[in-house]
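Why run this: before we spend reagent on co-expression, it is cheaper to look at a predicted model of the complex and decide which construct boundaries make sense. The entries below are exactly what would go into the expression plan.
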Amino acid sequence: MNHNEPSLSLVWDTFCGYQRTAALKAAIELDVFTQIATGTTTLEAIAERCQAAPRGLRALLDHLVIDGFLLRDARGYHLSATAAAFLDRNAPGYLGSAVTFVTAPRIVEGFTKLTEAVRRGTSAVTEDGALAPENPVWVEFARAMAPLAGMTAMLLGNLLEIERAPSWKVLDIAAGHGMFGITLARLNAGVRVIAVDWKNVLAVAEDNARTANVTERFQTRPGSAFEVAFGDGYDLVLLPNFLHHFDPATCERLLTKVRAALAPGGRVVIVEFVPNDDRSGPADAVRFSLVMLAGTPAGDAYTFAEYQRMLSNAGFRQPTLHDLAPSPARVVMAER
Amino acid sequence: MNHNEPSLSLVWDTFCGYQRTAALKAAIELDVFTQIATGTTTLEAIAERCQAAPRGLRALLDHLVIDGFLLRDARGYHLSATAAAFLDRNAPGYLGSAVTFVTAPRIVEGFTKLTEAVRRGTSAVTEDGALAPENPVWVEFARAMAPLAGMTAMLLGNLLEIERAPSWKVLDIAAGHGMFGITLARLNAGVRVIAVDWKNVLAVAEDNARTANVTERFQTRPGSAFEVAFGDGYDLVLLPNFLHHFDPATCERLLTKVRAALAPGGRVVIVEFVPNDDRSGPADAVRFSLVMLAGTPAGDAYTFAEYQRMLSNAGFRQPTLHDLAPSPARVVMAER
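The model came back. Tokens follow.
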């Protein structure tokens, strides 16, 4: 972006940003991309397959051409490379379902009350909703985010060189869909996973473990990560997308409990949006602070410097930061 | 945009588009840009001026840096060229108020029900709300959109060479804020304007006429554009951002009535988002079709070819299309 020239388009596009979200969400709900991927290209044919009115669909598809998800030529509409990779339900990288979580009513509500949240310095949504026991939002999260998490988990497996690892015992905290532990187990037949989350959420993880054919090496411990007994002797403890919900003191309390569950030589593996220490980037990580402000009492996207402090206060040694490109997620690891 | 490489960022950014809208809206509501423009640069000082919590404001301002509205250096936060031109309340080009209309509950509701609108081929919002007499949404529109319209009206004045024009009699239909007619009157002391809109909306236009010091040459005719008597002998009839609400048959009916009100040699001047005939661009104009699908029974962003047909059916001659760069608006003109 060129910051030297005033851009009316930038202002207008940002005013209308919610309309691009809605257009893509509608297309995913109508399964437009999957139909086009099968070679259905004319407006009339796509409308019939998606049970939509041609007049409505034309406005939607033309919007998606402008937005970069479709291309159009004399034969009709086609998928852009992005849509083919991520929005066709039959593609291995499909992650359209994630829109359901990113636009869940509770998250949207936080942004509807964003001015008030900035004034207060904390979410203006009725407090503690999402962090209450067995809140169904996390079942929805687990279902919607599994594909995206599966991709990130593959990248984590590469980082950990999982295929050459010994028979690790892995604790997956606030496992949700369970895809992080399950993927490690799938990539190494010696890995055993114990997953912690609310009981209703773990039912989704158990489904995913069955699909991945790792049920025999997948156990669950239902309950709050702050209260349930973890057991001990773990080689790895995974904390994927969990610490951002809490203030640093709460994170330190949990990290202390995690450290006690590790075997000698064991490591904690934190998967998160981690902004650079000066919060200048990466873009998604910096922006994620606002998601936490809008929706949680005291959560944040913590920098590596902030994680170093929390980990040190919890007794960990040698924290390191790792990218997981092309995923926007990063990994912070530390030794017991 | 490179359509050849799959972009996870494009998907994620679009999922989160509504968050960028909310961030900019919150910053406008807190008047962050105006405060920074006065030289308030540190987080703490901006927080005090805007009555916000530093913790909340930090998350918001860092988001706005990523989004292109702020810059940050060792001395604190500064406006980007875009924010300085359009978001500082003291700048002549201020148009922050437009966010109030673009994100008005009724418009947002249309997008919340977009999937249903695409299925039906018409808005899923309770029918006819916005088009009902004296709906207060148009008072809000008139207030919020006046600055942006004022800028577009200046560009229209250039196109019409208004400063060299004779003593035109101008009819401004669905005038709203009245800025189109008022700006022409301000630029040429011989221009007289008659503005048509709901009575509650015309009160806003009358305020704007007073501010522009053209009250003596500004009259109003309250009522529906389809029912009120226009009078006759007009040199120009303005139809700014009005026809997009209706189906072509309704537009033709109104254009026929407009033509009858024109003096010999008179012209109709339609200001609209006008997509190219193949709907390949301009971006904002193509996207605007979806806004009309989401929010109106049968409105659309019509192409020039479609306007040519409607104008011809209403008896007009020699339609022409004109850009108003840097505004995304275009002008369709035709002779009686």
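Residues 105 and 137 of chain B are 10 Å apart (CA to CA). The first strand of chain B starts at residue 70 and ends at 73. Bring this page to Monday's planning discussion.
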